[in-house]
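Honest question from a wet-lab person: if I give you the sequences of every part of a complex, can you actually get the arrangement of the whole thing, not just the pieces? Trying it with mine:
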Amino acid sequence: MKYIDEYRDAKLVKDIARQIEAAVDPARSYHFMEFCGGHTYAISRYGLEDLLPSNVQMIHGPGCPICVLPIGRIDAAIELAIRPEITLCTYGDLMRVPCSNGLSLLKARSAGADIRMVYSTLDSLSIAEAEPNRQVVFFAIGFETTTPPTALALRFAIAKDLANFSIFSNHVLTPAAIKTILENSDVHPLGPIKIDGLLGPAHVSTVIGTQPFEVLAEEFNKPIVVAGFEPLDVIYSILMLVRQVNDGVHKVENQYIRAVTTLGNEKAKCEIANVFELRESFEWRGLGAIPHSALGLRSKYAKYDAEKRFEMVTPAAQDNPACECGAILRGIKKPSDCKLFGKVCTPDSPMGSCMVSSEGACAAHWIYGRFRRQGKADESWRTVA
Amino acid sequence: MCLALPVQVMELLPDNMAKVGLDGIFKVISIALVEDVTPGDYLVLHVGYALAKIDTEEAQRTLALIREATLGGAA
Ligand code: SF4
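Yes, you can. This is the full assembly:
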């Protein structure tokens, strides 16, 4: 497929890796955080870490929306879904996240709750249209990529006068999370974490552009390279970061220029602004409460806001105390540091959210990374020219 | 769930929808979030919506830049 295969050219990937090796200063180390789960997945799947010199280390960041959603929000959705008049629609990834009382959306569905997996917000609108006697709630989750589709769904619902459609918004903002990580990198109670630069999110940036990262690069003196998700994108972006570190600069650079502009997608940003407003504060798993880091529906859309319409409350819920997702999402620990990893916690029976989505650090490491030492990483792509 | 893929526009449909193809698989998606879409364009598809157009010239330029970086090779 065009614009996929060309960026999986194994020979070029290895050539760039050699360039990185030649560029690094052996007397220092380089720690780069990939914010996005998509990068975590690519790094694991294509075994990119193995191609890097030992003094270049990748730190998995919190950029997987499933992983950072606190259990309490899913508990609240389940509480809603078990009400007889409610149909809860959501993206498939959320279904297996373990929450309180041994439940998950999947288990709640088996127990009789009307919970439906959808591929798109458009599917949830079709359900609301086809079943006017049900109250259809879209359990919305995601960074800036999934927010415009939710905003449009609301606009369509209003245009069609769908009185039985509402949204439970859990949309969160990338720059706010990056800021929190950089602010606390030296002083966090879980321990300090060294970050020399960041791989910036690709698809989030198609929406918001590269501009919001400029103030972060400036304030924290960290280079940020917005990077695409194919192996060549990722490895070349690491070379760009190494060069910036060597030169002592901290700019925002755009490697994914084929889809990302400085200002992003104005139409999408406009849709977001029309429908959503900033929440004062929002709780993130692993990162705690972050001010102005999430979006709720504007008050003029209160009747489409499931939290208000159904008087939802978010219970304070405890994560499994043995699960290290919190430290992993901060980049302080690696999946293999967790005692449960691969023993009681696997993608078939996840104990924590990082094991659920393929972009979660634990799942990516379980599926691809753990075979690395045995030489069993996914090699199939390397034959693609 | 943030994974998104390049797809190619086959046909424009009413209501800001389009039929797109990806490796022989066809899908109907919303193009309400992108401007000036024409058949043959490549789009970034995510949860049923196109988020951006892929700039084919920039795509080639990026590849050329990467290839250039491997020339004059070190090590
Ligand atoms: S291996 Fe499982 S229990 Fe351990 S941190 Fe990862 S998700 Fe949590």
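Two things worth pointing out. Chain A touches chain B through 59 residues (CB under 8 Å). The longest strand of chain A covers residues 56-63.
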